[in-house]
Design a protein that fits this description.
This protein is an all-alpha fold. The protein is built from 26 helices and no strands. The chain starts with 5 loop residues before the first helix and ends with a helix. The relative contact order is 0.15. Keywords: Cell membrane, Membrane, Transmembrane, Transmembrane helix, Transport. It is found in: Cell membrane. It is a multi-pass membrane protein.
């Protein structure tokens, strides 16, 4: 494609430059509007500058990609509600054998979860688990955070639903889910292993902490967690295991003890009796009239005491029965609440099982080659119906700003393609980037690697995808498929090069910084120190294994 008019080239380049700056640096001082607004601004400028028409802008929006992205995000929301990622977090520390074992687990679980639930989602929910584990074992967090982010990017390369650029490649190339997985899976497995080995080599000393220090740290954390829970259902186990006869006898004893007539101590009664018996000298010193009147008053008091004691004896059984009835009412309420809790628990277990079955069904349908976009949307709606409640709270967790960002990016990239600049640059590079030669694959990989870090991976795929595939198709149909898979592998792993290389890196960095009581800042240079060798080595090894 030849270059467009100089006016379109200049104006289209300005619009794309604005989009690129705001996409890579969303908080740029002179226009801190963010990535989503930046993509819309770039698309709007393409139409206003008449680089493309309004109809071409609407046609540039790929609804299949948006549908697949929306469906996978909804499924991820329901999986998070079903505690899927909580269980994955527990696997990180289950029967752990030390720091080196932990970092290998982080790499493995992060890669697998990212392949099927997108790398961004995995990084959002697993970052805090990783920080807690590092704290419990008295270890520095940054090797584990690097393991999480880098393995999430590598693992997400294996499937079309692992990351946004793979969604674009799967839709444009029409490669089935199964063929995509088979083509990149060997490279992904070897990449995760090599990435874990590099982490162990670089941070061996930091991970070689003494075992006794680990045990002390774990015991202190466990003791703090036990002290923070003042109630445990285990304390109610004996309460609910008594039979009815034992309950009746205990309730009767409790009722007798709680009655007012039995609440006076015996020592106090004996003291009152001693006070009521006067000494012999006191009696002799009292006149006869006074003694007579005293006898009369004493006899009347004794009669009154007899009456009151009879009344008390009559009221004791009635009060005992009343307190017994009250305690039986309390017991019946506790029993009904226990039944309700049991019913609620079983309903939750059945709902979680349904969510997992729908997700497995979605993956099977994708492997069978059904339309990926409608399969994801169908699974999302099945989960909404299964939940049987207002779906608004769950749908509000979907990142609609990401969907809008994609709309603006589609328009902006389409406008930049119309200028002819990408085609001209590719015409210059194409003779050196033939994938039927090792040298050509290496040069193509370097171009993708550089562009993915300069222009971000999704715009790179949109700009290069069709051109790379057309060049490979001129060689053979097999090479065309291989070209798409190379583009998917390199553009994804390229995100590990620097902290700004992928959204997953930024998510881990922000989640770690904002984690309550566990906050940690992953610096740009600490990431770059590991990211450069990891990206180059993993990319090179993976290229030899892609089919």
């Amino acid at each position: 494609m030849a270059l467009a008019s100089s006016v379109k080239v200049v104006l289209g380049s300005i619009a794309f430059a604005i989009f690129w700056v705001l996409a890579v640096f969303p908080a740029v001082p002179f226009l801190p509007v963010g990535r989503t607004a930046g993509s819309l601004l770039g698309g709007m400028l393409m139409v206003i500058f008449q680089v493309i028409t309004a109809d071409q802008a609407y046609a540039a929006i790929d609804l299949q990609i948006l549908g697949l992205l929306f469906g996978t995000m909804v499924v991820s929301v329901y999986l998070e509600r079903a505690d899927m990622f909580k269980y994955l977090g527990k696997l990180l520390s289950w029967k752990s054998r030390g720091a080196k074992d932990l970092i290998c687990r982080v790499c493995l679980i992060s890669a697998i979860s990212s392949a099927f639930f997108t790398n961004d989602t995995s990084c959002v929910v697993l970052t805090e688990f990783v920080l807690k584990i590092a704290r419990q074992h008295n270890l520095p967090p940054h090797p584990f955070l690097l393991a999480l982010a880098s393995s999430a990017n590598i693992g997400s390369a294996a499937t079309p639903i692992g990351n946004p650029q793979n969604l674009v490649i799967a839709i444009q190339s029409k490669i089935s889910f199964g063929n995509f997985l088979i083509g990149i899976l060997p490279a992904m497995i070897m990449g995760v292993i090599v990435n874990a080995l590099l982490l162990l080599c670089m941070y061996w000393k930091l991970l070689s902490i003494e075992k006794d220090e680990e045990d002390v740290a774990v015991e202190v954390i466990a003791e703090e967690e036990m002290n923070s829970h003042h109630f445990s259902p285990a304390t109610m186990s004996r309460f609910t295991s008594l039979n009815s006869q034992e309950w009746n006898s205990r309730l009767e004893v409790m009722a007798v003890q709680s009655s007012p007539g039995m609440s006076v101590p015996m020592g106090h009664v004996e003291n009152l009796r001693n006070r009521s018996i006067p000494s012999e000298n006191e009696i002799q010193g009292v006149p006869s009239g006074t003694l007579e009147s005293a006898r009369t008053s004493n006899s009347s008091k004794e009669a009154a005491n007899d009456v009151s004691s009879q009344v008390k004896e009559e009221t004791i059984p009635s009060k005992r029965v009343a307190s017994l009835d009250r305690l039986r009412d309390v017991l019946s309420v506790l029993t009904s609440e226990g039944k309700d809790d049991l019913t609620t628990r079983w309903k939750k277990i059945l709902w979680k099982s349904g969510v997992y079955l729908v997700t497995i069904g979605m993956l099977i349908a994708l492997l069978l080659g059904l339309n990926m976009s409608w399969t994801a949307i169908t699974a999302a709606l099945a989960l909404v119906v299964l939940d049987f409640r207002d779906a608004r709270p769950s749908l509000e967790k979907v990142s609609y700003s990401l969907l809008v960002f994609f709309c603006g990016m589609f328009i902006t990239v389409e406008g930049f393609n119309k200028t002819g600049i990408p085609s001209t640059l590719w015409d210059f590079m194409e003779p050196y980037s033939k994938i039927d030669r090792v040298r050509g694959i290496a040069i193509l990989a370097v171009v993708i690697l550089v562009m993915s870090n300069l222009a971000s991976n999704v715009p790179t795929v949109l700009l290069l995808g069709a051109r790379v595939a057309a060049s490979a198709a001129a060689v053979s149909a097999v090479d065309e498929k291989k070209a798409w898979l190379i583009l998917a592998w390199v553009s994804t792993v390229a995100g590990n090069l620097s902290l700004l290389g992928s959204a997953a890196n930024l998510i881990v960095c922000e989640q770690a910084r904002r984690a309550p009581q566990l906050g940690y800042t992953l610096s740009f240079w600490s990431h770059l120190k590991f990211g450069v060798p990891s990206t180059l080595i993993v990319t090179a090894i993976g290229l030899t294994l892609i089919r």
